[in-house]
Amino acid sequence: MKDRNRSRSRTPKVYPRITHPLVRDTKNGELRRATWDEALDRAAGGFARTTGAHGPDAFGMFSCARSTNEMNYVAQKFTRVVIGTNNVDSCNRTCHAPSVAGLSAAFGSGGGTSSYQEVEDTDLIVMWGSNARFAHPIFFQHVLKGIHNGARMYAIDPRRTSTAEWADRWLGLNVGTDIPLAHAVAREIIHAGLANTAFIERATSGYEEYAAEVEPWTLTVAEQVTGVPADAIRELAHAYATAERAQLCWTLGITEHHNATDNVRALINLSLLTGHVGRHGSGLQPLRGQNNVQGGGDMGAIPNRLPGFQDILEPATRAKFEASWNTVIQPRYGLNLTEMLDAIERGRLKAVYCIGENPAQSEADCEHTIQRLKMLDHLVVQDIFLTKTAELADVVLPASASWCESDGTATNSERRVQRVRKAVSPPGEARDDIAIICDLAARLGHNWKYADSEEVWNELRAVSPDHYGMTYARLEEHQGIQWPCPSEDRLEPTYLHARLWEKDPAKRGMPAPFGPVKHSPPVDLLDEQYPIRLTTGRRLDSYNTGVQSSGFASPLRRGENIELSPEDAAAYGIAHGEEVRIASRRGEVTAPAWIDPGLRPGLAFMTMHFPDEVDTNQLTIEATCPIAGTAEYKATAVRVEKLAVASWT
Asked: Alpha-carbon distance 227 to 65, whole Å?
C-alpha cells in the first residue's frame, strides 16, 4: 500500500462560520446547537461555580488582538470587575510582549516611538529580524517610499528574505546571536568615537556599565559567534551612528526567543548610544502583526496594566479605576498567557473565557497546550469560526467579525487609533462581542448597559489620559490620531520621548537607562541527532494559523513546506517537492521540501499557516522569556529525513 504521509491531501481546511451557539452535550459529549439563553446560562454558570469553589484567580481571560479597542476594554473590565482577577492576556504574549517590556523599562511606555511617515523621511532604515515585505506589507510600502527618497537600508536576518533584496546590505546572522551583533555594533561605535556623548550624559543612565558589557565583543569575536563578516558589522555601526536620522525596526525575529526582552533592550541601547530616539525620523519601530495587538494592550487586556497602560501596582491608579468601576482591584499582577497555561497544568486555573484566540494551534509545543486545555473544568470560546480551540470548548458563542460587523476603534503599530465602522450584520444568530460579554456580566450580577461603542470609548477616555482627547468626532476629522492625546484642543508630535532632548532637567524628566544584557544561546541545542536550526515566520499569502486566510484562494499560496538550503538538500539527497519527515525533541511532521537559495547551510524555515496539514508547532519549544513569557519559536533544533520509498502490496 502507498505511504499515507506521501499521498495525503495538502488542501487547507476551510473553517465554517459559527452562526448559532453550541454547548457540550452532557450525554454524548458532542457539541450541539443551543439557544442563546441556554448557552449564556451554561457559560455564566460554569464561571460562577469555578470561582465560587476556587476563588477568582481560578479564572483566565484570553482576549482578542483582532477585535476592537472597545471589546478589549470591556473584556478586561469583565475580568477585573465581574470575576475579580487580573488574569487577562492576549496574543501579544506570542509576539510583541518583549517589545512592550523592553520599551517600558527604558522609556516608561510600551509603544513604538515613531510614526510610519517618519520612515519615509529618515536617512537610514535598519530592518532587524523582520521580513516586513511579507509580514508587514503595509508598513513596507512606507519603507519603499523611504528608499525612493534616498534612505539606505540594512537587513539583519538569518535568511536572505524578500525584504533583504531591497537592502543596501544584508547581514545574515546565526539564529539567536542578535545580542552579540548589537554589542559588537555598539563597541565599534564607542571605539570609533561616534557615540553621542552629549545625549548620553544629558538623557541616559547606566552608560559605564553598558560600555563595560559590550567591550569584549570585538568585531573578530562577533564574526565568530554571529557569522556576520567583521567589515559588515563595522559598516552598519558607522552608518547607524553617523546618520542624521535613523529608524531601527524589528519584528518576531527579535521577540520570539527565550531571551526576547534582552534582545529588545540590546536594540534600544543602540538608539540611546547614538541619540536615535525622541526626534522626527529617528526612533524605534516594533512592527505589530495583527490589526489591534497594540490596542489590546493599551486597553488593559494584559495582566499588569490597566487601560491607558497604567500600572496596576500604583495605588492612585487603582483608586481611580475602583471609583469609576465601583469595585476593588487586586493590588498585584495577574498571570500572563504562558503562566495561565502552566497554572492549568498545576491545577490552579480551572476556567477560561477565550475570545477570538486559537492557542490550540498558535502556542509552541501545541500538543502540550491541547492537553492543558482539556484539563479545564470550564472552557468558553467566543469566536467567528469553529477553531481547533473552539472544538474543545464546553460552550461556543458565535461572535462578530470586528473589521466589518462591529463599530469601534483599533490601534496600529504607530499608536494610531482609527475608527472601525459596521458595514454588515453578523450572519445567523451571531452577535456583537460586547453585547455577549454584557449578557454574561448581567447573569453574574453586573447590569452593564452600553448604547453603542462610542459610550464604551468615552468611558475609556475618562480613565485614560493618553486617550482623553480622542473623541470619535476628532478621530474621524483627522482620520486617526496617535496616542498620547491628552487634550481635545491639540495634537502631540508624531514621535515619543522628545523630552529627552530638553535642556531643562525638570522638563527632561527621568533619564532613559541603558540595559546591559548578556548573550544567551538558543535553548534547543543542535547536535548530531538534531543538526538543523529551524526558524519560523510568515508568508505573504496567509495569516497566522490559517483559520481566516484558508477560506479564500491565493495565486501565491503553495501550502506548507520545509524550506532548505541547496547545500543541505544536496547533502541529504532531497529533491525539490519531495515529502520529508521533520523531527524535533517534541514531535514530528511531514512536509514537501522547498529549495531556497536564500537559506544558508544548516538553516531551515517553516510557517504556522497550515496546522491542519503540517502542524509546525508540534516541533517548536516552549522555552520562554522570563520577563515577557514569549516562547522561542525562532530557534528549534530539528533533523530532516527522507521517507521510505513508497511500495505496493
From this structure: 36
SS3 82: helix
Handedness of CA 525, 527, 530, 535 (dihedral sign): positive
Half-sphere exposure of 223 (CA within 13 A, CB side): 10
Give the H/E segment covering residue 205: strand 204-205
The burial class, CB within 10 Å (0-12 / 13-18 / 19+), for 543 is middle
- For the entire predicted model, the pTM comes to 0.93
Stronger pLDDT, 97 or 266, i.e. the higher one: 266
Assess whether pLDDT exceeds 50 at residue 647. Answer: no
Question: In sequence order, what are the residues at sequence separation of 6 or more whose Cβ sits closer than 8 angstroms to the Cβ of residue 544?
Answer: 289, 290, 358, 362, 608, 609
- Angle at alpha carbon of residue 496, lines to 490 and 497, rounded to 5°: 115
What phi-psi label fits residue 499: left (phi over 0), alpha (psi between -120 and 50 degrees) or beta? alpha
Pairing state of beta strands 378-383 and 351-355? parallel
Q: Is the pLDDT of residue 623 over 70?
A: yes
Count of CB atoms situated within 10 Å of the CB of 400: 26
What's the CA gap between 210 and 165, in Å, rounded? Answer: 33
Task: Of 553, 552, 556, 531, give the one whose Cα is nearest residue 607.
Answer: 556
Q: What is the CA radius of gyration of the chain?
A: 25
Task: Quote the CA–CA distance of 73 and 69 in Å, as a whole number.
Answer: 6
Q: How many CB atoms lie within 10 A of CB 265?
A: 25
Q: What gap in Å lies between CA 229 and CA 385, rounded to an integer?
A: 48
For the packed helices 433-443 and 36-54, what is the interaxial angle rounded to 10 degrees?
60
**Residue 162 region by backbone torsions, left for phi larger than 0, else alpha for psi between -120 and 50, else beta:** alpha
347: left (phi over 0), alpha (psi -120 to 50) or beta: left
Q: Which of 595, 550, 591, 583 shows the shortest CA–CA distance to 8?
A: 591
Instruction: Tell me if the bond preceding 531 is cis, omega within 30° of 0.
Output: no
Which helix (H) or strand (E) element contains residue 264?
helix 260-274
One-character DSSP codes across 628-642: T--B-TT-EEEEEEE
Check residue 416 and give its pLDDT. 95
Q: Over the chain, what is the mean pLDDT?
A: 93
Query: Do residues 382 and 397 lie in contact, with contact meaning Cβ atoms separated by under 8 Å?
Result: yes
The predicted-structure confidence for 243-270, as pLDDT tens digits, reads as follows 999 999 999 899 999 999 999 999 999 9
pLDDT tens digits along 319-376:
999 999 999 999 999 999 999 999 999 999 999 999 998 888 888 788 899 999 999 9
Name the grid cell of 476: 474621524
Instruction: Please state at what angle helix 453-463 crosses helix 315-325, rounded to 10 degrees.
Output: 150
Lowest-pLDDT range of 88-97, 108-117, 584-593? 88-97
Tracing cell 519603499 back to the chain, one arrives at: 144
6 vs 181, 576, 580, 590, 617, CA distance in Å? 41, 14, 9, 8, 20
Q: Which amino acid is at 492?
A: E
